[in-house]
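Model it.
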Amino acid sequence: PTELARWRAYADRLAELTRHRPALSAAPMIDFVGPLFALAQRRGASGAAAEENRAALLVLTLYANRRSLAVLLPQARGWPEPRPLSLTLNSRTDTPLHFLTSAAIAAEAGGPLADTVGLYKEASDAQGGSGFSFNDLAADRAGTRFGLLLVRSAGRMQQLLAGSLAERDLMPEVEDLPEGLSAPDFARRFDRVGTPEYERLIREIDARIDRCRVYAAFGSRS
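Modeled.
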């Protein structure tokens, strides 16, 4: 019952936040992060901050992926439905999906699994899909950092997210990173995952993430 009440609270808040926006229009992800985690801060004042953060994150992640809460919770079929929108981050619609999905995995199962899932997706894309994208991988790694901190430093994250928030506080500029690499393109440039050139670029990505205001409050990625 306690968990059910948590999910309902964030589902209701999301429905309120989307009510007056045109259906299927683009909307910055950041517009929903602040209000949802401000609610988490109020609800988590009694000591369940990490649990509130997980619930808020999962509701937002399912919404971004156009999945109903009823997929996981049959009772949610009767709850108010948020208006469908296309969330954006860094002016892209795919970046919130990478960011939030990695965050949700990290919050529930840890950083190594979230990073591995993100890397597997890009490796799969290189085999005839949209291509290996370090832009997407950066969103995965930023999301992993976000999800881990929501659990490990739950109260402090609520304070940071409930205040004034900009996209660059959560996701660095990565438009200059290589993307759309086919498997042969990737091999020519990096040979394989784990080579010095590949690891140099990963360190650069992590350094950019570390400089984002929210993550900078906790030091470099461990």
